[in-house]
């Protein structure tokens, strides 16, 4: 969740917040594994934007599943597949744009 907020701030979509993709990558690396601690420090306006974005995404995916299938079980299966593909695409895009998450190789 934090990464999407920082991406929005970095590209200037959130008034009053600006940065670069390098700032986003640095902040993301700093926050890795510490999301719970930093949620309380997050500006309420950014948290509200992020919650609504997540809800809109789920509503969109659910709508596609509802339109694609007629039976309840098939709708659930379609939703799960769409969600999985959406999530994979999201993290591929994060990796391509801000190199998050950092990949560490242990010998």
Structural key phrases:
mainly alpha
Please characterize this protein's 3D structure.
The chain has 107 residues and is an all-alpha fold. The chain has one domain (2-98). It contains five helices and no strands. The chain has helices at residues 2-10, 21-31, 35-39, 44-68, 72-98. The longest helix is centred in the C-terminal third of the chain and has 27 residues, at 72-98. The protein starts with a helix and ends in a 9-residue tail after the last helix.
What percent of residues are in strands? under 5%
The pLDDT mean sits at: 76
Helical content stands at over 70%
Q: Would you tell me the structural class of the helices and strands? A: mainly alpha
Q: What is the number of domains?
A: 1
Largest sheet: none
In N-to-C order, the SSE pattern is: HHHHH
User: How would you sum up the global shape?
Assistant: extended
What is the strand tally? Answer: 0
Radius of gyration: 16 Å
Number of helices: 5
Low-confidence stretches are none
End-to-end distance? 30 Å
